[in-house]
Amino acid sequence: MFIKQIIDYLERLKQLHESLLALSKRKTEALKTNDIDGLRSCLNQERKHISAIETLEKKRSAAVKEWAANEADYEGENPTISEIIEWVDWAERQQLKEVYDAFILVLAELKQQEVLNGDLTRQSLQFVNMSLDLLQPTIENVNYGGTSRTNGPKRSVFDSQA
User: Which residue from 1, 23, 26, 3 is spatially nearest to 84, judged by alpha carbons?
Assistant: First the structure.
């Protein structure tokens, strides 16, 4: 009974993470094309996904604790999915292992995508900072060096002879 719930929660978590991965890819495109509205939309949708993932993860964790409490031979308190796979019968083991492996692959791809998004964001910020530095001269450069290049007497246009 508890194993079916755990498998169901893992399936749903995998689906949410796949959807989050699709959002992450859309976010990458928004970063590449400098689409601020698209980026804002992706971030809002990500927040909703993360909230749903947190809720589902709490349910999955509770189901795992219930399984551990009801499993007579298991002595631990918070088993991992890998540990549960070793304790269940063959049919449930196969099902749980398939879902778990697919979930791990989605998580790895999501992590890789988010690293790319982080790199793109850092590069964008570096470009913005460089552009701001070019537009705002430093105090030393305000007078273009401050020293005169000519050694002769300084003349004004108004002091010239007619």
Answer: 3
9 assigned to some structural domain: yes
Q: d(Cα 83, Cα 68) in Å, to the nearest integer?
A: 10
151 belongs to a structural domain: no
Residue 151: other Cβ atoms inside 10 A:
5
Reported pTM? 0.75
Helix ranges restricted to H, the chain: 2-33, 36-70, 81-87, 90-135
The average confidence (pLDDT) of the chain is 85
Q: How many domains does the chain have?
A: 1
* Backbone CA torsion sign across 113, 118, 124, 130: negative
